[in-house]
Amino acid sequence: MDGDRLPDEVVLGMVARRLSDATDKPWHATDGMVKGSGSVAIVLGEDHTGNPGHLDLDFVLNVDQPEDTTISDCVAGYGGTPEETVDRAIQIWLDTTGSALLELLSQDGSFAGHFAPDAPDGFPGWHAIHGGITGWGTGDDFLAVQHWAVDHPLLSVLAPVLGSTFDRDHLIGIKAFFGGGKETETAEIRVNGVHHEAASEMLADLDWPRPVEGLSYARTFLLLVHNETM
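and the corresponding structure tokens:
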């Protein structure tokens, strides 16, 4: 959408309010980040797209060790104004990525589901948290891809192409965004914020719905907490 990008401090304030509402605990925008309890923080990445509704959000589990405890993700919103667009982007992030990360903090199933390392629908060898699955689009079947994603867990499907490509044995964030319609289609896997070509191609080859009329998209986030075979 057209319009100027909101100042970083405004965006961080919006993130803090959304997190406070979701957790019933105070989050504060201060010193260029959103701070939760203890060592947890969220940092806004540099604007590299020029799109006022595109956000890069880095969740830092320990601000004293950011290189080992940061899970990066990007998200884009939509709306009639920059404020609406950014607020929608934050909500999409919170419903998917944020739900997995908040579950990492709570560890009680209140935000997302857990998969053991040997679970049939899990990621072999890894304890995993499956974030929420959100969907949007147009037409009567706009939730078709979301419903498919609920019924077809992706962790075990993607594991063969992802398992040997990680650069650390903990806190691997995997975003899946896919969908489209009759004349357009996208399928993207990002691992800790970086596009993964082979996994994206595998996702594109799966039999998720392609509506003949309208559009249908789904987004989810999968967090691999630690490799229990190391």
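(Above: one complete record from the training split.) DSSP finds six helices and eleven strands in the chain.
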